[in-house]
Amino acid sequence: MAASVVALLLAATVSGPPALRQALHAASVEVEPPGCAGVLTESPQVVVTARHCLHDDTEKVQVRFTTGAVRTAWVVATDEVADQAALFLVDPVPIVPLAIVRRRQIPGTVLFFEGNPDRPRFQTVRLDSIGRCPSLPDLPDALFTSIRGVPGDSGAPVVDGAARVVGLVHGGARCQIATPADTLARLVDRVLERQNVRDGSGIVAGAWRRRAAPVLPDPLRPSAISTTSSSTPPGRASSASSPPSS
């Protein structure tokens, strides 16, 4: 019965709500190098992507937005276990960031995916299961999805019907594995708790405090989610790096 309901929802929303598609595309980015994807989230100066897209000695990258704007970004925090990285833009962008979902997802939930914004392929997908995968052995809650990813999609966001980030594409078999929002939220929260970030010349690149990112109404959220506990597991150890100060 549940599978039939999900199938009907997928068929009914194959093109996706226009507002969701617009919000997802606007906040999606390409990280250069190496050409992976990412997303602006929780702040007009914070971008997240897959950790494996960055070399160990990478300190800053270029971030290209779908508007054509390009920003320099520092690598300010990483989570090696969850394959996630947070970047801080030297200059903010006039684009609405996507919020990160703050509750555990339910297998069977309908999600949405665009991939690398340089070659977007909007898809209505399904969260099949949650568990461990061989390429993320220490992460207990990797997301197994039905996305049809291709090389270059690593770091692209998977979002719910309210355009909230549920996970980031990691890869795996047929690129269907995503890393979860709980570790991502903790990583971004650590960045947003800082008073400021300094660039290599010692100039304050930006200062911010947490502001809730707007979300869209979610018509596809299963009613069961409203009764699910919103608690998240204790914080996972992660390594953070700050731009060097002169």
What does this protein structure show overall?
It is a single chain. The protein is an alpha+beta fold and 246 residues long. The chain has 2 domains: 14-19 and 99-181, Trypsin-like serine proteases (Thrombin, subunit H); 23-97 and 183-204, Trypsin-like serine proteases (Thrombin, subunit H, Beta Barrel). It has helices at residues 2-12, 18-27, 181-192; strands at 28-32, 36-40, 46-50, 60-65, 70-79, 84-89, 110-113, 123-131, 142-145, 157-159, 165-171, 177-180, 196-198, 204-207, 239-240. The strands form 3 sheets. A 6-stranded antiparallel β-barrel has the order 1-2-3-6-5-4. The longest helix is centred in the C-terminal third of the chain and has 12 residues, at 181-192.
What is the element layout, followed by pairings?
Layout (H helix, E strand, L loop, with lengths): L1 H11 L5 H10 E5 L3 E5 L5 E5 L9 E6 L4 E10 L4 E6 L20 E4 L9 E9 L10 E4 L11 E3 L5 E7 L5 E4 H12 L3 E3 L5 E4 L31 E2 L6
